From TrEMBL:
It comes from the Eukaryota. It comes from Apiospora aurea. Signal peptide: none annotated. This is AB hydrolase-1 domain-containing protein. The lineage of its organism: Eukaryota, Fungi, Dikarya, Ascomycota, Pezizomycotina. It holds the Pfam family Abhydrolase_6. Residues 7-91 form the AB hydrolase-1 domain.
């Protein structure tokens, strides 16, 4: 059985990395390593010149750091993006799918095993897992927050409808920020999503 994947959390437009401490603590208790990316645009000293491109670069740096750390253990990385964070996260994962990293490794005579298996995004409470159903080389998934007052459930379902039919989905009665209001419940759902993705890829016995 493969080692447990690492999780990279990508905040929304106003959240800082500390907001993920509760769910990260829960995942640590479950045996999952994790990290949280700090968006360059959040709290920027010069907002006029700090935006999407800088956020993509910041997420990419955090993701590549995790990938390099996980390569020796052949573990996967799950990207969990919340709300606005799903936009720069989608750009940050480009070129980092399993197949793309394998091709790059062959071209450079290297051995690389760490790669994102999922991209979870939360627009509202939901967490879109870009990793469970295939799109762009990644598995995909979506976690709905039924009591999200920022993004209605109907809008969340519209977002999720763009994912492959065999994508992972889960739903619970959470607000826009379940990592703060229901960290243990979210940790459990993320564990399920990771196991679903790995099993689909044939990495779980």
């Amino acid at each position: 059985m493969s080692p447990r994947p690492a999780f990279l959390f990508v905040p929304g437009a106003w959240h800082r990395t500390w907001t993920y401490d509760p769910v990260r603590a829960d995942l640590a208790a479950r045996g999952f390593p994790s990290a949280a990316a700090e968006l360059a645009s959040v709290g920027a000293q010069d907002p006029a010149s700090t935006g999407l491109a800088q956020d993509i670069a910041a997420i990419r740096a955090g993701l590549e750091g995790l990938l390099d750390a996980e390569t020796e253990t052949e573990a996967e990385v799950v990207v969990v993006a919340h709300s606005y964070g799903g936009i720069p996260a989608a750009g940050a994962v480009q070129g980092l799918s399993c197949a793309e990293r394998a091709r790059e490794a062959v071209a450079h005579g290297e051995s690389r095993s760490g790669h994102p298996v999922a991209h979870a995004q939360g627009d509202g409470g939901q967490v879109r897992l870009r990793a469970v159903g295939r799109r762009g080389g990644f598995e995909m998934g979506y976690i709905f927050a039924e009591e999200d007052q920022a993004i209605p459930l109907v809008a969340q379902k519209a977002f999720q409808s763009q994912f492959p039919a065999d994508s992972f989905t889960a739903s619970f009665k959470a607000s826009h920020s379940p990592f703060l209001s229901m960290p243990e419940a979210l940790g459990g759902v993320l564990e399920q999503a990771a196991e679903f993705a790995l099993k689909k890829r044939g990495h779980v016995e």
